Amino acid sequence: MSKMPRILVVDDEEAMRESLNDWLKEDGYEVGLAAGGQEAIDMVRDEPWEIILLDLKMPGMNGLETLKHLKEVRPDAEILMMTAYATVDTAVQAMKEGAFDYLVKPFDPDEVEILIKKIVKHKELILENILLRKKLEEREQFDEIIGKSDAMQQIFELIERVAPTDSTVLITGESGTGKEMIAQAIHGNSGRCYMPLIAVSCGALPESLLESELFGYEKGAFTGAEHTKRGRFEMAHKGTLFLDEIGDISLKTQVDLLRVLQQKEFSRLGSEESIEVDVRILAATNRDLEKAIIENRFRKDLFYRLNVISIHVPPLRERKEDIPLLAKASVRKCCLELNKDEVNIAPSAMKLLVDYDWPGNVRELENIIERALVIGGGKEIAATDIPFRGREPMRGQLPKSLKSMEKIHIERVIEEADWNISRAARELDIDRQTLYNKIEKYEIKRG
């Protein structure tokens, strides 16, 4: 404790109260006096008393009864019982009810001082442990991001330094590594945290839709524009705009985006009026933008505008020490969502999780944990509850129809791409419009 504790003396004998008052004040303590149990309870309810010297034998409400009430009102107060009738029974009973220790009357000032110093040391250790535990928790978690690996610790430090600024940040990493969570952490720890964080999944929208999503449109700007609509830039005014999968936008949209970043203004589709915006830009991609620049698929000037601060999130297979932490956190989260009692992960199951390469990264891990909790009915997640998505189905489980096989394959690729249509189209080696047509043809729906 950084300051002298406040001590309350509770005794029906005035001479004892006054003696303790003089001793304790002489040692520099702030002292309060109560002549009975109810008075003590009222005083503790009104003011914080860290240490209470409580007489066991008092008329009306005795010491043990008073002790119970005091612990209910202020559980963290340490109580020293005082008694002239010291027996094993009363001492054990007092300790059971939460007393720190007891003093046998008559006692001298040195005894009291020794016990009070013992209490002070005890409370300091408790506070130290709380702070240490908090520090360890902070080391393993930043907002909702979890990780104790060196790579994640560096990311936590970078978020702390970058968040208070207005610098543009480019977050890179494979799909499912938690890029959006990093963007949320940056926004949440910035001066813009009370204003909106608006996210746009650039890869999930065709070029025409993306343009209207970003900049909005006026009524009558195109067929179907029956009313004026604000774009994401307007919605994010004074806040943050998160452009996910920025590497998938077309060259035309890149030009429009660059103009907004340079001039801090834009026009809605179908309007010539300029709208000024104050927006911080965070962008993310799972693509190699420098390679895309060489292949003339991404503008170099836009890359430099976005890449003021770079945060790279390593894949889960490169930080396996984070897997147990992430798995346990996923269990807690899923059990809460599924309204189930929290379960453990069996060592054999945890070994499977740690040994797996996780091509879908953290998102795949969360899905596997949720599936294990839904399907497994035991008190812990067993190894048999973890069938990885990468395992091939048995031959007898495959459909005969080529159409059905194509639908299953497209569904799987889209899901693995987390419905990033551009990336899924590249994986399937078809263009985006062909993929959109097949999604409509097979009536494939998200989830």
Going by CATH, the architecture of the largest domain would be: 3-Layer(aba) Sandwich
Give the assembly state of these chains: single chain
Count the beta strands.
18
The first-level CATH class of the largest domain is given as Alpha Beta
**Domain unit count:** 4
Please explain how this structure is put together:
With 447 residues, the protein is of the alpha/beta class. The protein folds into 4 domains: 6-133, Rossmann fold, CATH 3.40.50.2300; 143-314, P-loop containing nucleotide triphosphate hydrolases (Rossmann fold), CATH 3.40.50; 317-385, Helicase, Ruva Protein, domain 3 (Orthogonal Bundle); 395-441, Orthogonal Bundle (Arc Repressor Mutant, subunit A). It contains 18 helices and 18 strands. The strands form 6 sheets. Strands 2-1-3-4-5 form a 5-stranded parallel beta sheet, sandwiched between helices. It has a 5-stranded parallel beta sheet with strand order 9-12-15-8-16. Strand 13 and strand 14 form a beta hairpin. Helix 2 (37-46) packs parallel to helix 3 (63-73), helix 13 (323-337) crosses helix 15 (361-375) and helix 17 packs across helix 18 (432-441). It is elongated, with a radius of gyration of 32 Å. Mean pLDDT is 85; it is low at 389-396.
In terms of topology, how is this protein built?
Blueprint: E1 6-10, H1 14-26, E2 30-34, H2 37-46, E3 51-55, H3 63-73, E4 78-83, H4 88-96, E5 101-104, H5 109-140, E6 141-142, E7 145-146, H6 150-162, E8 169-172, H7 179-188, E9 197-201, H8 207-215, E10 216-217, E11 229-230, H9 232-235, E12 240-244, H10 251-263, E13 265-266, E14 275-276, E15 280-285, H11 289-294, H12 300-306, E16 309-312, H13 323-337, E17 344-345, H14 347-355, H15 361-375, E18 380-381, H16 402-416, H17 421-428, H18 432-441
Parallel strand pairs: 1-2, 1-3, 3-4, 4-5, 8-15, 8-16, 9-12, 12-15, 17-18
Antiparallel strand pairs: 6-7, 10-11, 13-14
Helix pairs in contact: 2-3, 13-15, 16-17, 17-18
